[in-house]
């Protein structure tokens, strides 16, 4: 039985499409090689799949550039000049865009304003005002984040301060050698007792103006 004919249309399944492409690509390359050997023909074959994979076959002892040069001579066209002209046009557009951006930057810095008319000056002013609004919004956002971070740190310090007070009060109840005093007179009295021979007395003074415990003295 002979093989049935396959309808020539795009294969919708991507996996089957890639398998078919790989098989038929190898077959085309084989035929190109046979044509080059049997007929002494210069063959250059370039293939690009839908997945952007590049495949190329060129007859032995020649290059793709040599084939393209021979093609230009036979047809009478200059592919390289056309390509060069397109590159030059693209370079010209890029230079114009670059010059425009540089001019906009200078004008926003208050320079190169002599060629601007009234309408252009008004548009430039509107752009600067819009830019200042964006910068101001970003600035306030940064300040808010910094303020929130500072408040969070202060809140954490207050919590630590409260926990330390709670631990000290609990320890002073359990062990009389610890004592908390909240004014200078009581603190000096505690130090005097410590100097008088109570070697196991720990006196701690709290200052309302600072969240930390200060003036710890071991007697």
UniProtKB/TrEMBL annotation:
Q: Name one GO biological process term.
A: positive regulation of transcription by RNA polymerase II
Q: Which domain of life is it from?
A: Eukaryota
Primary localization: nucleus
Q: Which regions form coiled coils?
A: 77-111
Q: Where in the cell is it found?
A: Nucleus
For whether the record's keyword set contains Ligase, the answer is no
Residues forming the MADS-box domain are 1-61
Gene Ontology terms, MF aspect:
DNA-binding transcription factor activity; protein dimerization activity; RNA polymerase II transcription regulatory region sequence-specific DNA binding
What is any one of the record's Gene Ontology cellular component terms? nucleus
Instruction: Report the residue ranges that make up the K-box domain in this protein.
Output: 84-174
Which SUPFAM superfamilies has this protein been placed in?
Answer: SRF-like (SSF55455)
* Keywords attached to this entry: Coiled coil, DNA-binding, Nucleus, Transcription, Transcription regulation
* InterPro entries noted in UniProt: MADS-box/MEF2_TF (IPR050142), MEF2-like_N (IPR033896), TF_Kbox (IPR002487), TF_MADSbox (IPR002100), TF_MADSbox_sf (IPR036879)
| SMART domains according to UniProt | MADS (SM00432)
| PANTHER family associated with the record | SERUM RESPONSE FACTOR HOMOLOG
According to UniProt, the name of this protein is Floral homeotic protein DEFICIENS-like
